[in-house]
Each structure stands twice: as structure tokens, then as C-alpha cells.
Amino acid sequence: MRVVLLGPPGSGKGTCAKIIGGLYGVPVITTGDMLRAAVARATPLGRTAKGYMDRGELVPDDLVNSLVAERLAEPDAANGFILDGYPRSPKQAEALEKHLQKTGKRLDHVLHVELEDEAIIDRLSKRRSCPRCGAIYHLENKPPRTNGMCDTCATALVQRDDDRPEVIRRRLEVYREKTRPLLSFYERRGEIKTIRGDLPLDELPAALRRVLNGRG
């Protein structure tokens, strides 16, 4: 199973990725994790990427494409993978397509996790984090035992700046601006399937199976 996952921040894309990975026994590969792993292993590509990251610059497309190809060549990805956070542009999508063609493979699905802006804002704005140990809570779905305090280290919880409604709205605007061409790229090929990002967690595995197996 080879899947590209698309969806705005807060849509539930990461949760879907983990579930699909577990259902089909394939690794979930995110851009951030991939970059950090390459840097930690000090591969030639990782050392080059580290220079950009240390300077606070975006890693160029060509380098990201090469890092993805390097990661997909690892043994655990031989039977499939879930890509979360890549590709981010039609140019990256074309590079992925060419790489898979060279290895005699193809994508099975491009899954778009859909959720309305207001639902995303409501979900993310209720997230709280611990500045000391990094634990994440949600005021409705995963509240702390003591209001406003971390269960693990009893530190006062905070709302991250990027979880404030006005910032979330801007993040969603940027997402749409940047991903609209990518969605069009895959839509023209008839490759996109969709799933709602607000399905109950206990219903998600069955719903994802239906969508990925062509029954929903």
C-alpha cells in the first residue's frame, strides 16, 4: 500500500496516517522525521540538509526529493509507505512519480482528509501543551486531571501561539494557497479519494479500509 496523504493542519491527517500504517503494516514517513533521521545518520544528503536547517532556510526541492528517494529505498518501505507532508507542490509530485516509475512502482492512493475551517479552528484552539515536558492535551477530548495543569509534571499548561484562532486562520489560508495546485495535479489524474476528518476515532479504521479498498 503506497499512499500520499493530503489535508490541512488540524484535519486529522496525522491520525489517519498512523491508522493506515497500522492496518497495512507500512511505515508512516513525514518530511520532518525524514529530515531529522537523515541529519542524525549524517548521510551525505543529511549533512547538506543540515546546513539549510541550521540557517533557518527551506530545504530545496531537489534535496528533499533526493531524501525521499533515499528513504523509500530502505527495507521497511519495500512493501509500501504512507507519505505525510510530501509532496507539497506539483514539482515534488512529479519527482515522486518519476522515482516510483524508475523502481517499477506506483501510488495506490492519494487520500485527502477534508474538514471545514471552523471545525479545525475549534479543534486546534482547544489544544494545550506543557512548556516543561511537552505533553499535549485537549480541553474536550483529552483534558488534564487538574484544570490547567500538566498531569505529568504539574506545570501550568499554555496555548501555543500557532493554536490561536487568528493564527490558525492564516495557516489555513497559506495551506490552501500552496496546495491548491497540488490537489489539481492529482485531481486531473483522477487519483484523489476523500475522507472526513471528524469521524469518531473508533469508526476511522473501518472507514479508511472502505475508502482505500474502493468501497466508499
Describe the structure.
By secondary structure, the chain is an alpha/beta fold. It has a single domain, classed as Rossmann fold, CATH 3.40.50.300. The protein has 8 helices and 7 strands. The strands form 2 sheets. A 5-stranded parallel sheet has the order 2-3-1-4-7. A two-stranded antiparallel sheet has the order 5-6. The model has no long low-confidence stretch (mean pLDDT 92).
Q: Tell me the strand percentage band.
A: 5-15%
pLDDT < 50 stretches: none
Percent helix range: 40-55%
Structural class call reads alpha/beta
What count of structural domains?
A: 1
Query: What is the straight-line distance between the termini?
Result: 17 Å
The largest β sheet comes out as:
5 strands, parallel
CATH architecture: 3-Layer(aba) Sandwich
Widest sheet, order of strands: 2-3-1-4-7
Order of SSEs: EHEHHHEHEHEEHEH
What's the CATH topology name?
Rossmann fold
Number of extended strands: 7
Q: Give the number of helices.
A: 8
What's the shape?
globular
What is the name of the CATH class? Alpha Beta
